[in-house]
Amino acid sequence: MLTGKQKRYLRSQAHHLNPIFQVGKTGVNDNMIDQISDALEKRELLKISVLQNCLEDKDEVAHALSNGTNAELVQIIGNTIVLYKESTENKQIELP
């Protein structure tokens, strides 16, 4: 689990990122979870955008993604979800 200080730090790091995944009408599926897992391994910190036409609630989407990828949910702001997962081979972010 992340501490409040670590979450604040990750939020500041994620501020300038653009969302690289979008969750739309089809919701969360296994293929999307696999792709997000791969991207988390490379980048550690990701923004995911929940589109207006998504039938699921953004909180449900966030928890499905964080559980599916074993990542930490850093924040949900508007329709954007921020996820963090420490990379095993490509560690870039040093948490305070």
TrEMBL record:
InterPro entries: RNA-binding_CRM, RNA-binding_domain, RNA-binding_YhbY, YhbY-like_sf. It comes from the Bacteria. Pfam families: CRS1_YhbY. Residues 1-96 form the CRM domain. Keywords: RNA-binding. PROSITE patterns: CRM (PS51295). The keyword DNA damage does not apply. Transmembrane segments: none annotated. This is Ribosome assembly RNA-binding protein YhbY. The keyword Amino-acid biosynthesis does not apply. NCBIfam families: RNA_bind_YhbY. SUPFAM superfamilies: YhbY-like. SMART domains: CRS1_YhbY (SM01103). It comes from Aquibacillus salsiterrae. GO terms for molecular function: RNA binding.
